[in-house]
Design goal:
The chain is of the alpha+beta class. Helices cover about 45% and strands about 15% of the residues. The chain has 6 domains: about 90 residues, no CATH class; about 150 residues, PAS domain (Beta-Lactamase), CATH 3.30.450.20; about 100 residues, Beta-Lactamase; about 160 residues, Beta-Lactamase, CATH 3.30.450; about 190 residues, Hypothetical protein af1432 (Orthogonal Bundle), CATH 1.10.3210; about 120 residues, no CATH class. It is built from 29 helices and 25 strands. Strands 1, 2, 3, 4, 5, 6, 7, 8 and 9 form a 9-stranded antiparallel β-sheet that branches. It has a 5-stranded antiparallel β-sheet with strand order 11-10-16-15-14, with helices on both faces. A 5-stranded antiparallel β-sheet has the order 19-18-17-21-20. Strand 8 and strand 9 form a beta hairpin. The relative contact order is 0.05. Pfam families: HD_5 (PF13487). One of its GO terms (biological process) is signal transduction.
């Protein structure tokens, strides 16, 4: 049976010969394919070269236009017109401005916007369309537009004046509807925030129907902003001259994908009713260009695309990228026309390859027979390697030189694998880079019988290498090599390692991206195998594996650094979002980490088993930075709410009220005329009494709106009494409203005149939840996070009486729920992130800092037993930072003793952890934080004994602070 199996199968000679024949076939096919692809790639490279050339030429043309206009704007920045205060003086500069526009035909208008709201513009009337739009006389060549404002910002004079070629005035008008404010325009705002020339996105000039852009710059001395409108209409004609053939498609687009230049005859302008606009790429009618801009990013190489079943090559590159403007060239060529000659050449090559393959097949069969026997013996030796026996000596003699070489190389391979196994274990085992390199160096010295070894790593400083580890080698700590180029590094290392006998073998440490990481050095014995190919290959493998391990560890460290930087960036954004939470996300982690360290170092029985690894500390630090990440979703108008009646609403109501006042003024004037015969004194007294009462009532309402004091029941009753006064409304409250506001109004008709209460709660003040009802109730099946919160009946109640009757602060129950929702969003956001195993507790640590020890907190109503120590630490840190923060505009910062007193009472009420508060006090963590982050006037004496009494903590010995 065994013998039968031994003789079964295909003979090795047949296998080897067949392998040679197949290899020849593959080689022939490969050569043919390579030849095809080389020719194909040559043509593609030529197309790519042409595309780059066209792009560069177009870029050069654009630069000529933009640089000329840029220089003009910079020159005008220091023109005296920027400091002139009146139209009369500004008109003195018209000849200079007109000359500039005549010298540069691309300029359409030159203008100056002043920081007081004044504006002056000189426009060139280039065509009949511009004259028709501006109602200009036929012989007008220039138009002057001016706006002047007083100190209060009110327009005091508008001025339109037309001039002929010689700047002789033709006509003047003062349109009252011309209320243009330059300070609100994008070009003014861009220039106001930039130190250089600002460039706007291209658009269609309304007066000339030319495509152009605006250049603007601010005079830092006067604050005035100079702007010019420059046409880029001629770019399309220039692009038409650049096209290599009729099959090539090209377009110039801006960062919004709007076409600003094209060699095609398609009009680049469309109209939205009467307003001209630029077309998009898909409106150009070239699917290849549309697919190129929608599916590919700008690149310096061609991209292959499938466009409606046809292959195209596309080129997508930026030609201008400055001042937030990114103009890009789209260039595409159909593959069919590109590769016609290559396909014909391929057919000829395949015919010739078939003849050659027939000859090589016969030759391969003969060669296979001569090498099959030695290979059979060699296969048995290799079989031992397949069984992981790397100690077996491999030696097979053959008349074929290559077979003998293969036998020798296989033996070297077995030895290399054996040695490499030990090194691989070290590379993958130790996460510490320094320890890993130390072990690798020791193993290499032992494996190669070297005298010594060392590893150098490239420093962040250019041209500097630092010693990472050494084995029996007296090597300097740093080596200067000029640049991190291997030839310089190699020369420098040979010099400093005293390699006069040339016995130091150096191998570069290069990562996957071919970046130089360092060098591996071995001082070999006098008779070494440094010149042996196998040894060099082995060293290359070792250095490559070591470089990969180094790169992986550095990348892991950099990714961790990047992750924490992004987290801090999010926290900083939340702090910057509102001055009412300024600095909170930054300071809470500092305080929380101080308390964690105190708990770790504490000898109290409560913390005997509490410790944290470096990984757990990092997890806690990340959670602390993310503890309020949900605030990024909190409505700013609620977070920043400073008064009870403050909200976002339609100001048409105030305008209507003013009309009501005017209505009543008219009635009063009428009635006063009728009553002229009555006693004036009694009427005057009654009027004064009424006005004084109104003044007193309004002052009370205004004070109540601030919300700085606790509202008593009698105060609420007085608000209701004041609000019960009525007035007559003669203007409809159903007009001038948004669709959403109209939906809130009752369906009954608005009958005028109507009686209104002075202050009231109306149905339109109620905003229902609708489909936006959050899943935070305990019995909600969509609540998968374990929230346990009560929800107000409606999403928002903006009722005036309801809002003014808030007893404490400015927030209603609905608004307070919206604020508290930030912690719900924190948990949702963090739970959705795929945190690794070492960060799995981040959502709980970050999201449970509003829970209370007695289970009355939110959003889950967790008790102390359900919360870990880090979670309870976060609760104390969050409260203490909020109490002591000195950068909140809505409150005065509390002193250290006041803040600690409030914490103590929260401990007494079982809202904060008693043991952690005790540790917080005794470890002086609060004081260390206060000395760094509190103002000197906030830091006062804190009595530890008094704090413990307030908190209900019994201790044997206390030490006063």
């Amino acid at each position: 049976m065994i013998e039968k199996k031994r003789h079964s199968g295909i003979p090795l000679q047949v296998i080897v010969s067949s392998a040679i024949i197949i290899s020849m076939l593959i080689l022939a096919a490969g050569l043919t394919g390579v030849s095809y692809y080389l020719n194909r790639n040559t043509l593609i490279a030529e197309v790519e070269k042409k595309a780059v050339q066209v792009t560069n030429n177009l870029n050069h043309q654009i630069q000529q236009v933009t640089q000329s206009v840029d220089a003009t704007v910079k020159l005008l920045e220091f023109d005296t017109i920027t400091s002139m205060q009146t139209l009369e003086t500004r008109k003195q500069r018209l000849p200079a401005l007109a000359r500039i526009m005549r010298l540069n035909h691309v300029l359409s208008a030159v203008y100056v916007g002043y920081n007081d709201g004044d504006f002056v513009l000189l426009r060139s009337l280039k065509n009949d369309h511009s004259k028709e739009v501006l109602s200009a006389p036929n012989n007008a060549e220039f138009m002057l537009q001016s706006i002047e404002r007083d100190a209060a910002g009110n327009v005091i004079r508008t001025w339109w004046e037309f001039f002929d070629t010689d700047l002789n005035s033709i006509s003047v008008s003062q349109p009252s509807s011309y209320l243009f404010d330059p300070r609100k325009r994008p070009w003014y705002r861009q220039a106001n925030t930039q130190s250089s020339v600002a460039l706007t996105a291209p658009y269609v000039f309304f007066s000339t129907l030319e495509i152009g852009t605006t250049f603007a710059i601010q005079n830092k001395t006067t604050g005035a902003v100079v702007g010019v409108d420059a046409s880029i209409q001629d770019l399309s004609s220039f692009m038409k001259d650049l096209l290599p053939n009729e099959h090539t498609a090209m377009a110039l687009v801006d960062q919004d994908g709007l076409v600003i230049g094209s060699p095609s005859d398609v009009s680049l302008i469309r109209y939205n009713i009467d307003t001209p606009r630029l077309i998009t790429v898909d409106e150009l009618g070239v699917p290849a260009l549309d697919q190129l801009i929608t599916q590919y990013a700008p690149s310096n190489s061609l991209a292959k695309m499938d466009v409606n079943g046809s292959n195209w090559y596309g080129f997508f590159q930026s030609v201008i990228n400055e001042s937030d403007q990114n103009w890009q060239v789209l260039y595409s060529v159909p593959e069919k026309q590109l590769l016609e000659d290559v396909n014909e050449h391929l057919i000829h090559q395949l015919t010739l390859s078939g003849i050659i393959i027939g000859i090589l097949v016969l030759f391969g069969w003969l060669i296979g027979r001569s090498i099959s026997r030695p290979l059979l013996l060699l296969s048995e030796e290799v079989g031992a390697l397949a069984s992981f026996d790397f100690n077996r000596k491999i030696s097979v003699a053959s008349s074929v030189k290559e077979v003998n070489l293969l036998s020798s190389l296989t033996d070297h391979m077995a030895l290399a694998i054996k040695n490499f196994q030990s090194i691989t274990q070290e590379l993958s085992r130790d996460p510490d880079l320094e320890k890993m390199l130390e072990q690798v160096s020791k193993h290499l010295v032992a494996i190669t019988s070297s005298e010594a070894g060392a590893v150098y790593l490239c420093s962040d400083k250019a041209g500097v290498m630092t010693l990472a580890t050494t084995t029996n080698m007296d090597a300097p700590k740093t080596v200067l090599c000029g640049t991190h180029d291997w030839s310089n590094m190699k020369t420098s290392l040979h010099k400093v390692l005293d390699d006069a006998e040339k016995r130091v073998f150096l191998a570069p440490l290069v990562d996957r991206d071919n970046s130089m990481l360092g060098a591996l050095a071995l001082r070999l014995p006098k008779e070494s195998m440094a010149a042996d190919n196998a040894f060099q290959r082995f060293m290359e493998e070792v250095s490559g594996a070591a470089a990969t391990a180094i790169s992986t560890r550095k990348q892991f460290e950099s990714q961790q650094t990047l992750m924490e930087a992004i987290i801090r960036l999010l926290a900083d954004a939340i702090d910057a979002k509102s001055p009412y939470t300024s600095g909170h996300c930054e300071r809470v982690p500092v305080l929380a980490e101080k308390l964690v360290e105190a708990a770790i170092d504490s000898n109290d029985p409560e913390y005997a088993n509490f410790s944290m690894t470096d990984t757990q500390k990092r997890e806690f630090r990340i959670a602390a930075w993310l503890h309020d990440c949900g605030k990024i979703t909190s409505p700013e108008h609620i977070v920043d709410k400073a008064t009870k009646l403050e909200t976002i609403h339609n100001r048409i109501h105030e305008i209507r009220t003013r009309f009501e006042i005017l209505w009543r003024d008219a009635e009063i004037a009428y009635l006063s005329g009728l009553l002229e015969g009555r006693e004036a004194l009694s009427l005057e007294k009654a009027k004064i009494r009424t006005q004084r009462k109104l003044q007193d009532d309004f002052a009370f309402i205004a004070r109540s709106n601030i919300g700085s004091e606790l509202m008593a029941e009698e105060d609420i009753e007085r608000i209701a009494a004041i609000g019960s006064q009525t007035w007559r409304r003669h203007f409809s409250s159903h007009i001038g409203l948004s669709r959403e506001e109209m939906a809130q109004l009752p369906s009954t008709p608005d009958i005028l005149p109507a009686t209104e209460y002075l202050i009231s709660d109306k149905s339109e003040h109620i905003i229902p939840w609708g489909i936006r009802r959050p899943a935070v109730e305990k019995d909600n099946p969509q609540n998968v996070w374990g929230f346990d919160m009560s929800i107000p009946k409606q999403a928002l109640n903006k009722g005036e009486l309801y809002s003014l009757s808030v007893k404490r602060g400015t927030l209603t129950n609905e608004e307070r729920f919206a604020i508290n929702d930030h912690i719900v969003q924190t948990i949702k956001m963090l739970s959705a992130l795929p945190f690794p195993e070492d960060l799995k507790n981040v959502p709980n640590i970050a999201g449970n800092h509003h829970e209370k020890m007695d289970g009355t907190g939110y959003p889950r109503k967790l008790t102390k037993a359900q919360m870990s120590i880090p979670e309870r630490i976060m609760a104390i840190a969050d409260v203490f930072e909020a109490l002591t923060a000195a950068d909140r505009p809505y409150k005065t910062a509390k002193t250290l003793s006041e803040s600690m007193r409030i914490l103590a009472f929260m401990v007494k009420d079982n809202h904060l952890d008693k043991n952690l508060f005790k540790l917080f006090v005794t470890s002086k963590a609060y004081l260390a934080y206060a000395e760094k982050y509190l103002k000197p006037e906030q830091i006062d004496t804190v009595s530890q004994t008094q704090l413990f009494n307030w908190a209900g903590i019994e201790v044997d010995v206390v030490h006063p602070s």
